[in-house]
Amino acid sequence: MKDEEKNAMSGSATLNSGGVSSAASQRRKTEMILAKDNSTAPVLEADNVTIRYGSNAAIKDFTLIMPERRITAIIGPSGCGKSTLLRSFNRMNDFIDSLNIDGKFKYRGHDLYAASVDPVEVRRRIGMVFQKPNPFPKSIAQNIAWGPLINGIASKGGSGGLRDVDDLIEKSLRQAGLWDEVKDRLGESGLALSGGQQQRLCIARALAMEPEVLLMDEPCSALDPVSTMRIEDLIFELKESYTIVIVTHNMQQAARASDYTAFLEDGHLIEFGETEQVFTRPEKKRTEDYVSGRFG
Ligand SMILES: Nc1ncnc2c1ncn2[C@@H]1O[C@H](COP(=O)(O)OP(=O)(O)OP(=O)(O)O)[C@@H](O)[C@H]1O
Ligand SMILES: [Mg+2]
Fold first, then answer.
1. pTM, rounded to two decimals
2. Whose CA is nearest to atom 17 of ligand 1?
3. Which CATH code is given to the segment(s) 3-132+210-290?
4. N or C: which end of the chain has fewer CB within 10 A?
């Protein structure tokens, strides 16, 4: 059996001993790991991607597949390229002029950067929640309603065959576990909520767009432990219906909350595997050092 097959059989995709594995072998390893998970399908893929800011590569020869209705954690030291990677999946990086992408980002097999693809539609299907809660300076209800109203998902009273905006506000706030806390103050400013509530409002705002994927970039790093646990519980519930990718510096969070973990260093994928394997039986010494807190 080849080394890469052995690695895959043990549940891990790692670099080969010579350094960076080829894109093709990285892909095979990842596919073998995910093949054990019969009830899921690939939703997002980075296929041999290199992302540069000017001449500086932030993501290098990178291949990763994120499966449906699973939580994939992305971990790695500060500056290793996690946010750059995440933002490329919903085309938030379109706004950075110096940024250049080689390779393919795919959503259900479709090239996310094909000329025919509308980035607004990409961001509707692939929602994003940021590190710092960023409610609009509008009411709680307007925070939820604005996106669906201007994107033709909802209307007042459900006219035109669209969703009723008030129903959508309630549904989204319920999904985000915030409804009971805010149902009597929907007209108050979103900025009047606590940090943890604001983050759940931002999650509700993302869910109101009826996405399939939620990208979360350190969604709990500005929150206290109780709010963090609430968001983690929520993420776990959302997994029933959504594909979730979460960047986190919190190793306990990655170990607790995710199904799969990708460890990055200096723009490279060092190891990908089932979370339990990556945290308890990492293939690479670098992964072991990182998840046990010896660096980063
Ligand atoms: N807009 C930008 N222009 C130029 N370089 C950038 C830009 N954004 C990020 N970089 C560089 O790309 C590399 C990766 O940055 P990125 O923000 O993706 O890392 P990260 O893993 O998310 O870090 P952190 O854990 O601190 O959030 C870094 O070297 C960073 O300086
Ligand atoms: Mg980041």
1. 0.91
2. 83
3. 3.40.50.300
4. N
